[in-house]
Design goal:
Elements lengths: L4 H4 L1 H11 L56 H7 L21 E3 L6 E3 L23 H4 L17 H15 L9 H22 L1 H11 L13 H15 L4 H27 L3 H22 L12
Antiparallel strand pairs: 1-2
Bound molecules: zinc ion.
The site of zinc ion has 8 residues, from loops.
Family: Belongs to the HscB family.
Protein name: J domain-containing protein
Pfam families: HSCB_C
Length: 314
């Protein structure tokens, strides 16, 4: 997120040359986060077939829904049949965000007590030690208890930044490494990793572009920095915006261009919010790529200075 202005346009240059050469970008297939995690096999003993979700709610359908967005959605015949059912059943479906199955509890590393999986500290009064950071097994929404829907399982793009900040400060205070300087080395290390994990979570979720990229990542979609624009009209608009900025005669003109670009950013964020609300992941991905370009233009406008050239060399 803190790339210099020189690289801000490298992606654009690469995208432009790709576009002119009519050569589609080649992305290595990416394994969705979920499939890299331990995943219980759908045996009769697994949580997916017990008739209960991992939140303990009764599972209305016993259909196993394998989501693998990176390699295209794998859908069973049963699921296709399910899709033909009346729309009002939708609210009972298991959310695709729930694909990251993990145990609901873990054992405290010190006293072995069974505690909720995301507990930062052991819940036993006579223990209370800090736990290892969940890293890959938890998503940022859960860790900060923010931006989740009323069921507490579906990440939402529209999160309240003030609530997010309050949650972050509260958790951060509890894991601050300074409070663990007198503790064992293990506890101090856990405090450090917890602290940096929470920081990363907060800084990812507070920024709309990073949040969108992260939400797509949770669904197995990777949006790279050098992602090309498929829409020729949009590509022209981006090139034009860059040219205007390069040819700007002074700060006043740059301010005007920046405001124009801020409006594009706001529009894209509104559209992203709608796409995520409708669970239209393909549209959300296209809009995220678009937002990346407008963010590059914004950064170049912010870094503009009289006499300072916008370097376009690689
Ligand atoms: Zn304990």
């Amino acid at each position: 997120m803190s790339r210099p202005a020189t690289s801000a346009f490298q992606a654009l240059d690469r995208a432009t040359s790709r576009h002119l050469l009519h050569r589609p970008p080649v992305h290595p297939p990416r394994t969705p986060l979920a499939s890299r995690r331990p995943h219980p096999a759908p045996t009769p003993a697994s949580p997916t077939s017990t008739g209960f979700t991992r939140h303990g709610k009764p599972r209305p359908f016993s259909i196993h829904r394998p989501y693998s967005t990176a390699a295209g959605s794998v859908q069973s015949e049963a699921h296709d049949a399910h899709n033909r059912q009346p729309k009002h059943d939708h609210e009972h479906e298991e959310s695709p965000w729930e694909q990251n199955l993990r145990p609901s509890t873990k054992a405290c590393w010190k006293c072995d007590a069974s505690i909720p999986y995301l507990s930062v500290h052991c819940e036993r009064d006579d223990c209370g030690v800090i736990q290892r950071a969940p890293e890959e097994e938890a998503n940022y929404f859960e860790v900060l208890e923010a931006g989740l829907d009323k069921d507490g399982s579906t990440p939402t793009f529209d999160l309240d930044l003030k609530t997010l900040r309050n949650k972050f400060l509260r958790v951060q205070q509890r894991v601050h490494p300074d409070s663990y300087s007198q503790k064992s080395e293990r506890e101090h290390t856990y405090a450090e990793t917890q602290s940096s994990f929470v920081n990363k979570a907060y800084h990812t979720l507070r920024n709309p572009l990073a949040r969108a990229q992260y939400m797509l990542q949770l669904r197995g979609e990777h949006v790279g920095e050098a992602e090309s624009l498929e829409d020729p009209e949009l590509l022209m608009e981006v090139l034009e915006a860059r040219e205007e900025l390069e040819e700007a005669g002074g700060e006043e003109e740059v301010d005007k261009l920046k405001r124009k670009n801020d409006a594009r950013i706001a529009d894209t964020i509104t559209a992203l919010s709608r796409a995520f609300a409708a669970d239209d992941i393909a549209e959300a991905k296209a809009l995220t790529v678009r937002l990346q370009y407008w963010e590059n233009i914004r950064r170049a406008a912010v870094e503009w200075a009289p006499g300072k050239r916008i370097e376009l060399t690689h």
